[in-house]
């Protein structure tokens, strides 16, 4: 358990150094804890240290942890592939932002359900900047069209973009993904769509958060570097076949 606190301190230090190097204020970057496979007990260690922005990848896990986490105020994002038939549930378990909206039918299902419940929801559009088959997200050349279409859904508030960068030891290839996301942010902002606020860039994980911060990330999503290695490979979370 002490490891969690120690690890958060190290991530804090990495974020601080990256912000300094990029000439940005530390407050411009939020640390989101990617809590897939992490037990409520361990998540609460991070809460106690003041880190209360978390995100799950699976509706099932969100559901399982909901009760146990409900006594501590926190903010829940959703960062996994969301099936349209799970839309109802996601709204039931207190998610305030779905970062992984990557197709119109999902946006429309959310819109319908939100209208029924008379609710609103923040969303980010997920872009597949690495062009890897294994990753979800709208293709970069379709991102503007998706933004235009999702902007028609008045129950959804588009707050920005999310991506998973290329997994590569070659820094420049990773950087290109993040630069692409930032460029799309500017292009979508320039469309001046009603109700669309392009303020968030959710990018950067345990291995590449410095590059992401240099390229403008406002949310970095960190799991492994805080909670340790996961038992399941990420493909379990990122591939359709395992749904
Ligand atoms: C698991 C996950 C993360 C965190 O990845 P780590 O490498 O463990 O820091 C970030 N974003 C998404 C979408 C994830 O599924």
From TrEMBL:
Domain Alanine racemase N-terminal intervals: 28-229
Alphabetic keyword roster: Pyridoxal phosphate
Domain of life: Bacteria
Modified residues (N6-(pyridoxal phosphate)lysine): 36
Short name of one Pfam family: Ala_racemase_N
General function of this protein: Pyridoxal 5'-phosphate (PLP)-binding protein, which is involved in PLP homeostasis.
Similarity field: Belongs to the pyridoxal phosphate-binding protein YggS/PROSC family.
Name listed for the protein in its UniProt record: Pyridoxal phosphate homeostasis protein
Organism: Capnocytophaga haemolytica
Source taxonomy: Bacteria, Pseudomonadati, Bacteroidota, Flavobacteriia, Flavobacteriales
């Amino acid at each position: 358990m002490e490891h969690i606190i120690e690890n958060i301190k190290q991530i804090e230090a990495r974020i601080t150094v990256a912000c300094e190097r990029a000439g940005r204020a530390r407050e411009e970057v939020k640390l989101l804890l990617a809590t897939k496979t992490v037990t409520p007990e361990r998540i609460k260690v991070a809460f106690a240290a003041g880190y209360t922005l978390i995100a799950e990848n699976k509706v099932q896990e969100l559901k399982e942890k909901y009760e146990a986490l409900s006594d501590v105020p926190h903010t829940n994002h959703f960062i996994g592939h969301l099936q349209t038939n799970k839309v109802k549930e996601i709204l039931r378990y207190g998610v305030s932002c779905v970062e992984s909206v990557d197709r119109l039918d999902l946006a429309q299902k959310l819109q319908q359900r939100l209208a029924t419940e008379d609710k609103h929801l923040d969303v980010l559009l997920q872009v597949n900047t690495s062009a890897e088959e294994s990753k979800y997200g709208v293709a970069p050349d379709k991102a503007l069209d998706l933004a235009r279409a999702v902007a028609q859904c008045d129950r959804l508030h588009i707050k920005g973009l999310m991506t998973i960068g290329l997994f590569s030891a070659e820094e420049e290839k990773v950087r290109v993904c993040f630069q692409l996301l930032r460029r799309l942010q500017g292009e979508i902002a320039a469309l001046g769509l009603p109700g669309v606020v392009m303020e968030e860039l959710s990018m950067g994980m345990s291995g590449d958060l410095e590059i992401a911060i240099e390229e403008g990330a406002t949310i970095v999503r960190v799991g492994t570097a805080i909670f340790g290695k996961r038992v399941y490979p990420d493909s379990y979370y990122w591939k359709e076949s395992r749904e």
